[in-house]
Amino acid sequence: MAELSDLELLAQLGVDMAPEAKRTLTPLQERIVAGFEDIQRFAAEHGRLPQHGDDRDIFERLYAVRLEQLRKMPEARELLSPIDNAGILDGATPAAAPSALDDDALLAELGIAGGAEADITRLRHVSSRAEKRAAEEIANREPCPDFDTFSPLFERVQADLKAGARQAKVFEQTEVTLAEIQLGNFFIVGGQLAYIAASTEDFVTQYERKDRRVRVIYDNGTEATVLSRSFQKALYRDDTARRITELSAGPLFGDVAEPDDLASGTIYVLRSKSAHPYVDQHRELIHKIGVTGQPVASRIANARNDPTFLLADVEIVAEYKLYNINRSKLEGLIHRALAPARLDLSAGDRFGRSVQPREWFLVPLAAINELVTRISDGTVTEFRYDRDQARFVQV
Fold first, then answer.
1. Burial class of residue 196 in the structure, from the number of CB atoms within 10 Å of its CB (0-12 exposed, 13-18 middle, 19+ buried)
2. 63/73 Cα distance (integer angstroms)
3. DSSP H helical segments within 239-306, as ranges?
4. Cα–Cα distance between 372 and 349 in angstroms, integer?
5. Which helix (H) or strand (E) segment is 371 a member of?
6. Half-sphere exposure in the Cβ direction for 88 (13 Å, CA)
7. pLDDT tens digits for 50-109?
């Protein structure tokens, strides 16, 4: 007798090896499930089912009406039975207490159509599970263990706002764009100053939309790691939300470029995409700062093959245009000012020799912006960079 293969053996045993089709829910089904989860949470918190009655909270009365509706709908029972572990759908209907509002009037008061059309297709006060997850992510903040690193940034931004060097701008679009939720940007949300301290690479969600996770630090010493779209929704729903503008140094040693000014290059600030453990751990604070006379995009085109770029691709974080300035002297001034924060990094060249790049610094972007401003207004010699405080202090 020929030996049976694994698949044949499983088939004879009645095991179906066909992959189970992933179940997707329509928007209506999502809201039915979300509405039922509200009832489940109420029952778990109060140890009983929601009930009618004038003495009941209006939302409890809404849950009681909703539960009765769900019990009457065969399609809802079929959808919810797998998650109804407590048998809520099969429980006895709570006794109704006298009420000044009948069920239809209560639904109407809550913005839900009454009568025959008053099924859960009309529920307006039920958030989808996706919306709830987004809200929970924003609310799920934890103490920031390294807040001392970020505290000087918030102090600097507050000082910049008072001095007028930065502005808190209302979002002009109907919705905040994901492009604005970038590493190093500051926002005001929920009455707190928020800083985007880290970001993952973009990925595609199950809904075929681009997203990424961002680490958000708040000025009250808490933090949250959320989807950028979740943070986007939090900004959009907050009428008082603001975006904090970047420091604007303008052309160095002048507010505007004059017609006879000669463009002499660009200061560029880069972040490495290297997988080196130390770089990965401190990516939002490690920057390469240099000056070039060519387009920055051309300067970094071969970064992954260049030891001075740590043999990895880089991200352009900031650029400052230069006019009538000696590039090499300016670059030397920048590197001297940031010398206390210079990193001891090394990378091998294509011949196996060790190369020691000299333009990488452990310094926050806000401090770099301040340095450029101080070079521009001539006060750079009055300050020195304090690595422990991660900011410039007056000499």
1. buried
2. 15
3. 277-281, 296-299
4. 31
5. helix 365-377
6. 29
7. 888 777 776 777 788 888 888 888 888 888 888 888 888 887 444 443 344 455 554 554
Sequence-distant contacts of 51-55: CB under 8 A, at least 24 apart:
51/94, 51/95, 51/96, 51/97, 52/94, 52/96, 52/97, 52/99, 52/103, 53/96, 53/97, 53/98, 53/99, 54/97, 54/98, 54/99, 54/100, 55/97
Q: How far is CA 255 from CA 45, 268, 317, 323, in A?
A: 62, 19, 22, 11
Say which amino acid occupies 393.
V
Q: How far is CA 24 from CA 27, 28, 206, in A?
A: 10, 12, 11
Three-state SS at 199: strand
Long-range CB pairs of 46-55 (<8 Å, 24+ gap) are 49/88, 49/91, 49/94, 50/94, 51/94, 51/95, 51/96, 51/97, 52/94, 52/96, 52/97, 52/99, 52/103, 53/96, 53/97, 53/98, 53/99, 54/97, 54/98, 54/99, 54/100, 55/97
Give dist(CA 163, CA 381) in Å, integer: 20
Contact predicate 382/395, CB 8 Å? yes
| pTM score, whole prediction | 0.40
Q: Give the N- to C-terminal CA distance of the chain in Å, as an integer.
A: 92
**Residue 365, token pair as written in the block:** 């972007």
In the block, which residue shows the tokens 């004038």?
A: 54
Sheet with 213-218, edge to edge strand ranges = 142-143, 222-227, 213-218, 192-199, 186-189, 242-244, 168-169
